[in-house]
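Standup notes
- DV: blocked on the single-chain target, sequence here:
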Amino acid sequence: MIRKKKLENLKSLSKKKPEKGLILRLKRSGGRGSSGRITSRHRGGGARKLYRLIDFKQLKRNIPAKVIALEYDPNRTAFIALVQYEDKEKGYILAPQGLKEGDTIIASPKTEVRPGNRMKLKNIPEGAMIYNIELEPDKGGKIVRSAGSAATILSYDAGYGNIKMPSSEVRKIPGECYASVGSVSNPEHRFIRWEKAGKSRKKGIRPHVRGTAMNPCDHPHGGGEGRTPIGLKYPKTPWGKHALGVRTRKNKWTTKLIVKRRIKKKRK
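- DV (later): unblocked, structure below
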């Protein structure tokens, strides 16, 4: 099969440099934590990029904002929108699907149900698609922020909204929390194909070596003559723990708000 690269469609975006007052130059960690040890493997290098300060809270309530430009953000999969409020203050927000330059959005406890508008969860009708959802009031959007994703409001009960997540999980979220109406932009991101390893290196992704290609002292899957199976009942991490399909979520305070776990895909 011939590898063909498929990149993002950036025709709808504005060709402009990022807003000067809304960018930061962050120091790259190379996958290392505060102690200097590698805590996230296969990271390092990559092209330089500036971090765009995204307003996930949108605390300027009841003040309309005009969309000045739609921009590409190298730090996330979704596109972002530069908006200007009536008091001339500017800010970046996550751009929803269908938002255009010149459109007006607003964040208010209760407003028109239109892509880009932000309001309290209890005031959004059932069946609506939402994104950038808060888990605690006025703490900023924490979930449903990646390209093309959206959650659906199923029902309301006892001050909580039952929200169906993109993973098919159903969870309760307080009705006082804010959420944006619509779905996140750039749904074609899932179809991107990189034609060569060099593209990944520019994104800061280093080579990933298979455990079966290592020596026994370096990985539980290593060793053997030629290409051999792992020789274990289940695959393991380099540190000997269960891998693939094992739940790692534990001691999370939001676990009590999960109504229905996500559906497991059946292996063929």
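- Follow-up: Helices lie at 197-202.
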